[in-house]
Every structure is written in C-alpha cells, then in structure tokens.
Amino acid sequence: MDTIDSSDVRRRIQAVHDTMYVLSGKWKISILASLCFGVKRFSEILRDVDGISGKVLSRELKDMEMNLLIKRTVLNTHPVTIQYEITEYCDMLIPIIHNLSEWGIKHRKKIIER
Amino acid sequence: MDTIDSSDVRRRIQAVHDTMYVLSGKWKISILASLCFGVKRFSEILRDVDGISGKVLSRELKDMEMNLLIKRTVLNTHPVTIQYEITEYCDMLIPIIHNLSEWGIKHRKKIIER
C-alpha cells in the first residue's frame, strides 16, 4: 500500500471499523456467507449456519433487511415461499467473504500443523 | 459463486467464522489496518487507532504476536526502538482489510444519503 498521510490512515481505519460494526455479532457474516452461494429459503439458511436457532435467524434477517444487506422476496406459491438474497449494495462484500473463507481454511491448517 | 454441495458451504462458512474469531475483539483489525500502511512503532499505532489505550495496545500486540499475525523487531538504537509489522502469513489479510475499508467508506456515504 502506498504511503499516505496519517489523517487518511485514520479515516480508512475508521471505515474498517464501520464495516466490522455492520458485520458484527455472531451470525451476520455467516448468514451473508450462506447467501454468497445463491438465493436461499429460511430453512436452507438455518441448515447452512451451524448452531443458529430459528428465532435468532428471523431476528437477524429482519435487522439485515433494515440495513439494506439482504432482500426478502415473497413468492405467490401455495404455500407462500419466502426467499432471501444479498442486495446489489452488498455485492462488494462477496469477495471479502470469499477471502475471509480462504484465509480461515489456511489458518486452520497452520494451527493444526503447529 | 459456483453452486457447491451443502457440506462444503458449511465448511466455508466455518472458515469465515475462524477468520472472524482471529480478527475479533474491538482492536485487532484496526491494529492490522494500521500496519497495512507499513512498519510502525508503538507510538505510531497508538496515534492511528482512535480510542485505544497504551495498556490495551501492548496486550493486543502480545496476543497478535503469539498468533503469528504480527512480528516484533527490536532495533539496536539508543534508546532501543521496537517496531511492528504484519507477518508474511498475514499478507493475504491486506486486500481483505483494504476491501473492508472501501466498503466502509461507501457504506458511510449511503447511510448519510438516506
């Protein structure tokens, strides 16, 4: 990274903080990671994200919808189907989540080798 | 992202969790973000990371050194100088942190426009 003045360094570090705040909490990034692999129904997200309860998942989905991270679509099927997807606004997060996953896989190997 | 079977989705989500665990806590990612801009002394990191105290910074640096995230070098100057840098192992985190920063800057604009 090019050398830049300290006020810009602080602004960029604050921006990292802002993103981490949006992605904070135990479940948000796992839900986003699940939706990185495509449009999903509630039950599919529940299956993907180890350890989350239905009650917590519905609260998190409401919060993420309010924060423009995900989009909820109600399909006119019988019975009604509700599906969730990452909003266009959040597309930029997909490579971040992909990189986080890659690093995590390498990190786990490294820790096991120690 | 290509469609992949659900056990691999869960493995990748777990890997995202592992990375977020390593980067968790209020300060780690900000300290890494500061070091993304080059080798730094203790006082420089303290200036970069808004709100952190000297005591907390030294504890975090010890923990990050133990987890192979950063390297501490003692220079034979008068007085002695100690500098910190990101380990090669962590180089892959730099683009992640850079993307987190970019997204945070856009997110802040979006929230202000709402």
From TrEMBL, chains A, B:
HTH hxlR-type domain: residues covered: 14-112
PANTHER family hit by this protein: TRANSCRIPTIONAL REGULATOR, MARR FAMILY
Entries under Gene3D superfamilies matching the protein: Winged helix-like DNA-binding domain superfamily/Winged helix DNA-binding domain
SUPFAM superfamilies tied to this protein: Winged helix' DNA-binding domain
Name the UniProt record assigns to this protein: Helix-turn-helix transcriptional regulator
Family matches, as InterPro entries: HTH_HxlR, WH-like_DNA-bd_sf, WH_DNA-bd_sf
Organism: Flavobacterium agricola
Keywords: DNA-binding, Transcription, Transcription regulation
Ribonucleoprotein keyword on record: no
